[in-house]
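Data availability excerpt. The first of two example chains:
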Amino acid sequence: MATRSTICLVLRKEDIGKELKFDETKLPKDVMYSNEYLQMVGSVKLEKPILQIYHYWDGYPQGVGYTLLEKFNDYDTILNLMLGGDASSINGDVIQQYCAWGGEDWDSVQPYQTDEFTLTEDFIYKFEDGEWWFDGYDCDGWCNLKDYLSNMENESEDDNEDIEVDCDND
């Protein structure tokens, strides 16, 4: 069973109004990308402050969360990723975005633009002010992803005790 998630980026004010397009050459160097259907990925006119995409596989913090933190950790790289639209998988070293991988119709998989965050999947991630945050069934409010994964790593080294999640609910 898939653990679905939503990935969000809070846009810079100066980017609203621009029309941009995904560029596979701007992905991290160690990330593989299937470009068989790349010509189907359209441009995106940024009109609202939050850009979001749907992510299907391994949406939990140790899956896509870890990949986002390790490989997509600056605004421009994340914006480019988002411009590719909804994804089947953004885990490890391979990205499988629906339009570029499965030939989906761009209109149905292009990034969604909104004014507010809404948890509609198992997890939601947001990149804001230079940090990744997430919310989902392990949290009661937004949790700092880096702190959460660091705590998990430390706890699992100690003796696999239950992991307490410290969230910033502001």
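And the second chain:
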Amino acid sequence: MPGPAPKDPKLRQRRNKKSTRATLARNVEPRKRAPSLPDRGNGQEWHKLTKAWWRDLWHSPMADEYLRADEHALFRLAVLIDMFWLEPTKELAGEIRLQQQAFGLTPLDRRRLEWSIEQVNAAQSRTHARREVQEKAEEQQQRDPRELLRQKPKDIDLDSGDIPVVG
């Protein structure tokens, strides 16, 4: 006796999909110009690791997801990171971790936001190259090395008695 009729595929779709789902292109041209870190106001320079973080942030695939309104929160995060590099504390590290979550700055945060970074064709080409090398190695193993001795060179006339000189 047959069971109930299958549901319409539209009814079987997940309804708890996150609205933040996005696929981020890895090879996207970086922004023409990343926002500059604001002036600290007290004549103090930004720590070199903070500057490096800021540069990496704006050249990452996630940068295209940030809106102009997000820059203010990222400025606050930069201040926390700068404070951490000047005087690291456990409390600052915890606050930085909490603030980073909103911007997908760690693999776990990107997973939570359902952001995935587009895989580059390089992985596919490496796999292809590896397979070619394996196939050639297998082909070499299957050949009998004595076969080379049995082959008659095409450009040598054995009847003439001339022996070609190699080198």
